[in-house]
């Protein structure tokens, strides 16, 4: 089963986009997801929309390697978000050839957040981009069912979908039944990783696992085979597997290679057993 493998920026978050793209090329990926907006004060973002030099270097790396940009991130849907302020972010994504941008639910007012999601979808559509809402167990949209409900409340925009992340899917207790009947317009790609069967009980531990120490596909106990087969066939797979300890000891490129090799093995054995 041949899948497009995309390297999510969180896996190699210490690398600026030009270097990340070259690492992706050397370690078995076909595309990358770029974090242009930082998520936390401790984790970097690379605002190419405000850095003409790095943007030019990023485009040069893409041309040199043939690596594509699959998605850009990370927009928090917060109460004070001004959607029009994202215009240059979207324009830069379009210039890089990205397919989608990722947004996350951080507004306690679900009605307002649904409106913002619809507005971002409209803005993105003007640049030929799709939008995916990623749910997180610690937010007001903690699972797949709630994410689908918010999408419906926003009017089910044609270019608006949901991003399923394997770790968040299982940690949130989301149901496979909620995936039934959904096509690639709603679920356009998958964030893949692995982890222990059970996560931490406290918020600090859950955030630590999600943002710093996941497991490569096939190296944990999550039923990834069941998730992959329940998703639309042949959608791209983005490998989001932060490995802080391995990166500190062996470097970001070693981590990226470890993850791509593990994912390739996982897909190779899917027809015969669970990975």
TrEMBL record:
Xylose isomerase-like TIM barrel domain mapped to chain residues: 22-256
Pfam families noted in UniProt: AP_endonuc_2
Gene3D superfamilies tied to this protein: Divalent-metal-dependent TIM barrel enzymes
Domain of life: Bacteria
SUPFAM superfamilies membership: Xylose isomerase-like (SSF51658)
PANTHER family associated with the record: BLL3656 PROTEIN, HYDROXYPYRUVATE ISOMERASE
Name recorded for this polypeptide: TIM barrel protein
């Amino acid at each position: 089963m041949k899948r497009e493998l995309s390297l999510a920026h969180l896996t190699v978050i210490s690398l600026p986009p030009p270097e990340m793209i070259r690492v992706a090329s050397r370690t078995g990926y076909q595309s990358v997801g770029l974090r242009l907006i930082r998520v936390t004060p401790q984790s970097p973002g690379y605002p190419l929309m405000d850095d003409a030099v790095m943007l030019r270097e990023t485009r040069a790396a893409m041309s040199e390697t043939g690596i594509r940009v699959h998605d850009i991130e990370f927009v928090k849907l917060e109460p004070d978000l001004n959607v029009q302020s994202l215009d240059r972010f979207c324009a830069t994504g379009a210039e890089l050839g990205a397919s989608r941008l990722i947004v996350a639910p951080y507004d306690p007012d679900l009605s307002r957040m649904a409106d913002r999601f619809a507005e971002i979808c409209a803005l993105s559509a003007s640049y030929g981009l799709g939008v995916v809402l990623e749910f997180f167990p610690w937010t007001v949209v903690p699972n797949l069912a709630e994410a689908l409900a918010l999408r419906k409340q926003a009017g089910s925009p044609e270019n608006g979908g949901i991003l399923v992340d394997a770790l968040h899917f299982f940690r949130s207790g989301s149901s496979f039944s909620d995936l039934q009947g959904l096509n690639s317009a709603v679920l356009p790609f998958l964030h893949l990783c692995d982890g222990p069967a059970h996560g931490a009980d406290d918020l600090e531990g859950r955030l630590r696992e999600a943002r710093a120490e996941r497991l490569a596909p096939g190296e944990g106990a999550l039923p990834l085979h069941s998730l992959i087969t329940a998703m639309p066939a042949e959608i791209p797979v983005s490998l989001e597997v932060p490995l802080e300890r391995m990166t500190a000891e062996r470097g970001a490129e070693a981590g990226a290679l470890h993850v791509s090799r593990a994912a390739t093995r996982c897909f190779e054995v899917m027809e015969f057993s669970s990975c």
